[in-house]
Structures are given as structure tokens and as C-alpha cells.
């Protein structure tokens, strides 16, 4: 044992209690040197049961906020001698609500010694009812596990006053069960494994003789056998509407409904009423109502992915639906039904609706020619289709001007076949060719009055490309008989051959032989 230092011995205010005597000379076990605070953690290191109470918020030290937070020495003062009372518990004033067993009812009038035996700690007092009342138990084990929980039925005022709430069990008492004697269901006070099925008690009352199963509560309530709680609309997956509402139960339920599950589709009961002979499937409710077979509700516009418009509205159903509706899904594209009507022989694809409307093949044709490679501009917009499309196979129609206007070409192809180079679709007389900008030969002077075919008497592609070769057109006009070469423009202007421009000519002295 470590001895207290001389300083600690001088500062010790007195002896500790007998329980702490063996640590009296080990000041460090309870104190921080020269400090009056910080002892709490040392106390709890030894008094582990108190530490557990504080941490788990139980017992006096865990439930009382002051005791759970302040320094232990505030209540338990040491160094007052070997026989000092450091607990200072006043049983007369102690508030039992800060313990794990609050005193209620008859317990309030009991003497402390009734539960707290001499020589034992107060915390060691028993807390289970059976610890004190084992001899008072009239059930003698017949209640099974329930006897370990007396408070489930009894309060703390009187044994004879029962506080048991049956509604908190797995079988709430309602209707006539609420006034039934306990012994009627619990003979000999036995409560464990009591059956909860109606038929366990009421099998002899079953007027159905078990034919409708054992789930009595599906139809009956606890108020009375005759008050039927069963609602076919809410309690089943088949609501009774229309004529079904007045049909007798046995019309459909010829056997035990809990053993023989009836099919909910119309055809199961009405297969002999089906004038379609199953061709339209088994889902009669798709078209018919339960009020009357003749009243149909099927709407092709909203109930399918193919709304009926134009000539389709008056078409008979079996014109399209040749087989069972549900075994064979009809395609919704035009070509599937109208492939034999296709005058284009498939050349325009199978999406007829791009051009045609359901009102008729020749009505409201809405083909947009402008989205093709040949938009209709100018006079072309007023031309009848058959002027260009000589057959219904439109895809192979050529798009160049010459293909249609070859016989209208006054140039006889001398200017090529790219008519659009000069002309516009607004008319042959409207043309846009600019010889000065779009060729290598500028038109000015006397050339402005010259007709095109005066020069272009052969195909443009074969003409000479040298813009200075005047002689190509004016060979017969050459008064010099070729003596001055083919480049007339060196001396002459384009206004007239008589207008000369001799400033450009540089004469050189003739060379002589020396």
C-alpha cells in the first residue's frame, strides 16, 4: 500500500469511513492533488454500479438530473470518521419516483422495510410482482407466460380490480364478444394458445355446413350472425354491377367459393352467349357492358391505336379483322391492307399516309413536292402532275430541264442542255444570263445587238475558248485577207470595223541585212 506524503497527511481533514479505510493512505485514488474538484471520475471508477445507472439513466443517480451531473462530494462528504453516514438517505422524505420502481396505489402505504430488507442495499430490492406476491397468485401457473407480467391485468390498487385491456391483444373484443364471460373462451383460466378462428367456437352455429369455408368474418360481423358484413364490391376483385347485381349467389358459386376459385372473365360464364364464336377473344367487357349485351361501349377512336377516319368509319369490322382479335394483331400501316391498291407498285414505299388521306385515294392528296429534290417553282407549280409523271412510278422521273423541254429548245442544244443557266421557271422569255459576268467574252459595242445564234451556231462546249480570236466569227469580214493576223482587236474596236485604235500599234523599223 502506498503511503500518503507528509503534505497529504498534514492536509487530511479526518478519517474516512470503514468502507474506504483501506484506501485512506492512497489519496490519489480519490483526489487530484491540491484540488477540490474532479473527484467524480474517481468515485465512478470504484462504484461501477452507480456509473452504469448514470450512463443508462436508471436508478436514483441516473433519473435525478442533479445527482447525475454534480460532484459526488456535494452529497456524500468524507473524512468525517469511521462511522460517519456519507449516504444521508432519509427514507421518510425520499421520492421513490427517482428509483426504478415508482410507488403507486397500495404500495404507497407500505413500510420501507417490507421490500428493503436489513443488511441489503436499497438498489437490491426486488422489482417483479412475483418476488413479493407469489403466495397471492390464484392462477397457479395456468396463465403460462402471462403470469410473469401481472401488470398486464392487475393494477397496484387492488388485486381484484382488473385493468386488463383485451383490445391490446391479438384478439380485440368487439360486438357480442365484449360482453362474453372470460371462461367461455378461456376454460380453467387458460389463456395461452387460445384459437382465434371463429369456427373454433362457432362450428356448431354454421348454417352453411362448412360449404363456404371457415372464414366467417368475411361475411359476418361480431354484432350478429344475421348482420352480413360481406360486400362483394369491396371484398372481392369482381364488383357486381348491372345485371350481376341482381343475380343469385348460387348462379355463379355452385361449389365452395374458398375451394373452387371462379374465373373473373366474362367468357367463363357466357361462352354459350358468344355470337362471335370466340373470334373476338374472351374479353367481352372490351366492347359490351354488364347492363345489356346489345349496349356496346367500345370506341375504336380511344380504345385502340388506330382511330377511324374517312372511309374507315363505315367499313365493316370483319373487313379488317378476319381472325381472332387477340391471336392476330393487325398492323396499323396502310400498305398492309392496301398493297393491292398501290398503283405505284411499291416505288413510293409503304407509308401511303404521307400523300393520301382516309377520305379517298384521289381526295386531299397532300404530297409536298417542295421537300423533294425538285421543288415546284414558277410555272411548274401550276402544271398537272401527269404532264411530267407519265406513269404512277414517280421515283424514276428525271429532274433536268432538257428531259421535258428538249423539243421546245429553239437553240437545238447549241447552248447546251443546262437551260437553268439562262432561264428561270417563271417563263422562257425571262432569262438571267449575263454574258459579261458568266463568260470570258465581254459583250459591248456592236455585239450588243447581235442575236445569240449568230455566234452560237454550234454547241457551246465545242467553241474556241480564246476570247481574242475575232477571226473565228469575222473571217469573211477581214479586208486584209489575213495579212494582219487573227487578232483584229489590236486595231479595231467593237463598235465598228471602221473605228480604229492605232495607238496600241507599235511599228518597228524593218530589219536590213548588213
| Helix/strand class | mainly alpha
Number of strands: 4
| General shape | elongated
Give a quick account of the main beta sheet: strands, pairing sense, barrel closure. Answer: 2 strands, antiparallel
The value of Rg in angstroms is: 59 Å
Widest sheet, order of strands: 1-2
How would you spell out the order of helices and strands? Answer: HHHHHHHHHHHHEEHHHHHEEHHH
The stretches of 5 or more residues where confidence is low (pLDDT under 50) are none
Topology:
Elements: H1 6-11, H2 40-46, H3 48-56, H4 59-63, H5 65-69, H6 112-115, H7 129-133, H8 182-185, H9 198-202, H10 232-235, H11 249-252, H12 266-270, E1 288-289, E2 292-296, H13 300-303, H14 317-320, H15 334-338, H16 385-388, H17 401-405, E3 423-424, E4 427-431, H18 435-438, H19 452-455, H20 471-474
Antiparallel strand pairs: 1-2, 3-4
Provide tags for this entry:
single chain; 514 residues; mainly alpha; two-stranded antiparallel sheet; 4 strands
Architecture overview:
- With 514 residues, the chain is mainly alpha-helical.
- Among the domains are: 88 residues, no CATH class; 69 residues, no CATH class; 50 residues, no CATH class.
- Strands 1-2 form a two-stranded antiparallel sheet. The chain has a two-stranded antiparallel ribbon with strand order 3-4.
- The chain is 19% helix and 3% strand.
